[in-house]
Structures are given as structure tokens and as C-alpha cells.
Task: inverse folding
């Protein structure tokens, strides 16, 4: 077993081992943001090459989104086999799936590969946040989640920055999926340095049994947890619904209705990067200061207004500001729900 990450939680002190763990997981989370953004960025160019209408593209995105639901099956295995092996499996499969997308030449094959890739992406991001929550001291987890969210925002900006250069190459938008396979580069480091969480190892030592799906549902809907379970499920539904309606068709919207060129997306990337990165860090600190509930409430209120700004504006600056703002709210909100 590797020895770089300590076996237990080290009190309230932030250690070098914690910093190393966050650095590795930040790279993983960055490409979750990259993939979600990439789904939107390539949409008009994908539709043009495959001759797909917006309605057809919408159905393809709906099928791909089913991977997020199916990820529940794989995520449950982390209770039996550990967080580490599931993260390694999902991160490797996600990167391979991104690379395989380069070789698709029809909407059906693209949809099928991206369905599996989405399943693995959701699994790896769930494991990343779970490992942080089960390893870092409680007083530092909000800021750690904020840091991971900041790295996700950086990854989300990269497709916008790389779109114009990619379209100028022989493989066009497919080059972005080559970039999306970058997590393969960090796999040797994860294999060497990443250890299992102290919480999972303590549960295994104590012989805590794994619950069946029906037993999990019964516990979650028991009187002591029912209200919180329903509230968090509804909040998570709202966040994901907002992601779908506001983000996935953004590129198609601005290309077809606002006349944006690929260079406009390159201008957008640095516009939102600095503010988003600092915003996520501030959200993490805020959640430690005033609590997760009030932080989520503030970001969800801001989400609605910024979405309206983005989709009712006609000029570049307010559209770009609205996009950067509501994406920040979405990632911050989802990271603190986790």
C-alpha cells in the first residue's frame, strides 16, 4: 500500500498530505468542468457535421444525461470496494471515453459513447468530493470544496478558449475530446499516491454491513431523515434542471440567434476565469462562515437572475457576464450540496 496519505484524519490541521490529495483531485474535477462545458460548446458544430436538427440534438443530450442516473449503480459499489478503486476506474474510463469520441462519425455512436462517458464522469466527481469529505477535517471541507469548484470552473473555460484553434485543425471539434483525455496523464500518480479514506477503512474494520438499495431507501425515508432527504433531492433536481436548460444549449443559442463566431468564445474564457475562480474560493469560505444552507440559498437566488440576464441580452458583455455568473452559481451550489 502507498504511504503518502495518512491513514486517519489529522485533527483540525491542514497537512502536506491534504494539500497533495487536493492537488490530485483538483485535476480530476477540472475535467468534469471541461466535459460539461464541452457538451455545450461542440453542439452547433456537431449538429452541422451530422446534419442534426436542434430537436434531434436535444434527444441525444437526453439519452446522454441518462448516464448521470445510471452512475448511481457504480457509485454504490464504493461502499463495498472502497472510494479509491472506484475513482481510479471511473477516471480511467472517462478519459478513454473522451478519446474514443474522436473516432465517432455519426450522432448515434457519439451519443452511445458519451452516455458511458457521462456515467463515469459523474462517478469520478462523486468520488472526488466524497474522498475530500471523508479525509479533511470538518472545519476545512467547505473551503476544500470551494477549491475543487474553482478548478472545475477553470476546466469549464478551457473548451471556449480552445474552440477556435480546434476548428482550424484537420479534425476540428474532435480535438477538444483529445484534450479531454488528459486525466490519463495523472493516473500513474493516482495509483501511487492516492489511499483509501479513513472513514471507509474504519467502517470495514468495524464490519459495518453494506445496505441493499431497498434498505437505503427505507433509511432515507424514515421519519428522522425524510424531510431532509426530500429537501436535498428537490434542491439537486433544481440544480440539474437549471444546468440542462441554461448551459447545454448555450453555444447553439449564441451561434444561431446572436451570431457569435468561434473567436467570441475565446474572448469569453478569460472574461470569466478570474472572477469564477475567486468566486468559488469565496463560496467555500462563506460556507464555513455562515453554513452550507445559507450559502446554497444565496447562490440559488443569484442563479435565476443571472440566467435571465444571459438569455434576454443581445450584446456580448451582458451575455458573457450572465453565463460566467450562473455557471459559478451552478458549480458552487452543486459542490456544497455534495
Result:
Amino acid at each position: 500500500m502507498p504511504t503518502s496519505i495518512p491513514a486517519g484524519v489529522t485533527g483540525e490541521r491542514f497537512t502536506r498530505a491534504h494539500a497533495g490529495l487536493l492537488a490530485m483531485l483538483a485535476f480530476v474535477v477540472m475535467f468534469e468542468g471541461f466535459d460539461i462545458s464541452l457538451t455545450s460548446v461542440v453542439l452547433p458544430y456537431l449538429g452541422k457535421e451530422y446534419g442534426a436538427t436542434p430537436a434531434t440534438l436535444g434527444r441525444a443530450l437526453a439519452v446522454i444525461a441518462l448516464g448521470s442516473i445510471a452512475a448511481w449503480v457504480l457509485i454504490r459499489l464504493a461502499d463495498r470496494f472502497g472510494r479509491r478503486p472506484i475513482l481510479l476506474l471511473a477516471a480511467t474510463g472517462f478519459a478513454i471515453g473522451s478519446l474514443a469520441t474522436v473516432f465517432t462519425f455519426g450522432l448515434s455512436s457519439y451519443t452511445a459513447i458519451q452516455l458511458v462517458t457521462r456515467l463515469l464522469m459523474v462517478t469520478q466527481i462523486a468520488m472526488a468530493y466524497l474522498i475530500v469529505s471523508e479525509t479533511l477535517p470538518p472545519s476545512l471541507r467547505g473551503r476544500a470544496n470551494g477549491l475543487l469548484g474553482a478548478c472545475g470552473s477553470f476546466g469549464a473555460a478551457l473548451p471556449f478558449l480552445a474552440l477556435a484553434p480546434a476548428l482550424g485543425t484537420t479534425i476540428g471539434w474532435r480535438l477538444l475530446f483529445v484534450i479531454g483525455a488528459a486525466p490519463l496523464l495523472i493516473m500513474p500518480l493516482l495509483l501511487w499516491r492516492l489511499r483509501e479514506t479513513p472513514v471507509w477503512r474504519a467502517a470495514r474494520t468495524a464490519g459495518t454491513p453494506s445496505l441493499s438499495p431497498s434498505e437505503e431507501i427505507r433509511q432515507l425515508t424514515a421519519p428522522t431523515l425524510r424531510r431532509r432527504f426530500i429537501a436535498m433531492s428537490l434542491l439537486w433536481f433544481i440544480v440539474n434542471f437549471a444546468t440542462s436548460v441554461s448551459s447545454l444549449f448555450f453555444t447553439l443559442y449564441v451561434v444561431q440567434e446572436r451570431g457569435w463566431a468561434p473567436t467570441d468564445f475565446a474572448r469569453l474564457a478569460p472574461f470569466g476565469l478570474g472572477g469564477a475562480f475567486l468566486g468559488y474560493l469565496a463560496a467555500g469560505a462563506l460556507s464555513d462562515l455562515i453554513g452550507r444552507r445559507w450559502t446554497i440559498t444565496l447562490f440559488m437566488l443569484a442563479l435565476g437572475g443571472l440566467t435571465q440576464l444571459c438569455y434576454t441580452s443581445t450584446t456580448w458583455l451582458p451575455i458573457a457576464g450572465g453565463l460566467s455568473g450562473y455557471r459559478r452559481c451552478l458549480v458552487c451550489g452543486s459542490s456544497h450540496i455534495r
The chain has one domain: 16-337. The longest helix spans residues 107-135. The domain at 16-337 is CATH 1.20.1250.20 (Growth Hormone; Chain: A;).
